[in-house]
Amino acid sequence: MGRIVFLLCIVASIKLLGAGGSCPEGHPHAYSGGNYCCLHGYEKDEGRPGCNGSPISLGSHCCKKDDHVSCPTAPCYSFGAGWTTVSNGQKGELTKLCTLCSS
């Protein structure tokens, strides 16, 4: 039963997050609709909506210090978003659990 729930969780996550993938760990913050990934968690401050130094989001239009890369599999979501790592009770073994899915 646990494996079925886990597989359903993966399918639900794919549907929620779209067909894209994750930003790379080195540039973990997705922005601009998931087309780009920023090193920093903040927008560049240009004094306009989506570029005013706020915390970065998918609706942001720029990245602090222009330190970004294109999403390798657009649209991207932020690195690690929707997943948490927990121990499964075995020696040093960890399991990824979907935090976007309801149980």
Summarize the structure in words.
This protein is an alpha+beta fold and 103 residues long. It is built from one helix and seven strands. A three-stranded antiparallel beta sheet has the order 1-2-5, with no helix packed on it. Strand 6 (83-87) and strand 7 form a beta hairpin.
Provide a brief overview of the structure.
With 103 residues, this protein is an alpha+beta fold. Helices cover 16% and strands 24% of the residues. The longest helix is centred in the first third of the chain and has 16 residues, at 2-17.
Topology as a string of helices (H) and strands (E)? HEEEEEEE
Query: Care to count the β-strands?
Result: 7
Distance separating the two termini: 12 Å
Major β-sheet profile: 3 strands, antiparallel
Please state roughly what percent of the residues sit in beta strands, choosing from under 5%, 5-15%, 15-25%, 25-35%, 35-45% or over 45%: 15-25%
Which regions have little confidence, pLDDT < 50, spanning 5+ residues? 4-18, 99-103
Question: What is the mean predicted local confidence, pLDDT?
Answer: 75
Instruction: Give the strand order, joined by hyphens, for the main sheet.
Output: 1-2-5
Q: DSSP helix count?
A: 1
Q: What is the alpha-carbon Rg in Å?
A: 16 Å
Structural class: alpha+beta
Q: How would the global form be characterised?
A: globular
Q: What share of the residues lie within helices?
A: 10-25%
